[in-house]
Amino acid sequence: MSQPYSIGTVGTPWGTSEKQSWLQAQSMKRSYDADVVTKILELSARFNVSQYGSLSYEHRVFDLFAIQSPNWTTDKKTILITGGVHGYETSGVHGALEFLEQYGNHYSETFNLIVLPCLSPWGYETINRWNPDAIDPNRSFFNGSPAQESKLAADYLAQFQNNIICHIDLHETTDTDNSEFRPALAARDGITNHNWNIPDGFYLVGHTQKPEPNFQKSIIDEVAKVTHIAPADENKQLIGVPIEQEGVINYDGTKLGLCMGVTDAPYVTTTEAYPDSLKATPQSCIDGQVAAIKGALNYLVNLR
Length: 304
Fold this sequence. Notes:
This protein has eight helices and ten strands. It is globular and about 55 Å long. The strands form two sheets. The protein has an eight-stranded mixed sheet, with helices on both faces. Strand 7 and strand 8 form a beta hairpin. The longest helix has 22 residues. The mean pLDDT is 96. Helix 2 packs parallel to helix 3. It is α/β, with parallel strands linked by helices. The chain has a single domain, classed as Aminopeptidase (3-Layer(aba) Sandwich).
């Protein structure tokens, strides 16, 4: 159990004033426009870039972008890649962009590609899990969502729903999950916080309703070529969940409102890099995300 959070009263959910205090404590630490939008616009020479919405927060407007493969045809199955649902999870954003840069044209010969590289740009800039309303976008993919990040993405993706075969959602698990985000969540909701064991390495979260273990294994095998896979703890668990196989656990992504449940795709996975590992570098985490996408797509190519 962690120490009480700095905002609010233990055991009492936050009201408007506590949420405002939390928001006032946040600050810009990096630039979405310089780090992300610049790269998206560079890719527009090779891919179709469109704006699917915008967010107005703190006197700022953040444009949201989707990137599609140029040779789109209705006879190809569609692959969805999402990053930055939690804006602070850096390698998910840059892994999505680097995949397109290195391999997008190759895989677009076989598949239609849709990439939403950064769903939560305010979270990217302030290095946050939540949006400014203290809402977690990755628990908000459901009808009537209070998170604009989730609603705008879901509304945009609805037009492709019938043809999406695979969704790869790129995430990280970090030490700040225990030092900041889980304590903040407990304070916000007026509950007791119990930190979890942070896995040292890369792992996957499959969907309990469609686990597809061979698909997940293909991803793990590819990622293991570039970075280390998280070992299970002494209870044969990762983040408190029993492992399904090496480096893989399962959540009910639809019930929990996770981004992985936003489509009816039969093949879904959420990646989790660990950037705070002594064995990791920012680039190795990006490499792991790129490898995860390749592992997923190579598996699907071989099914054809």
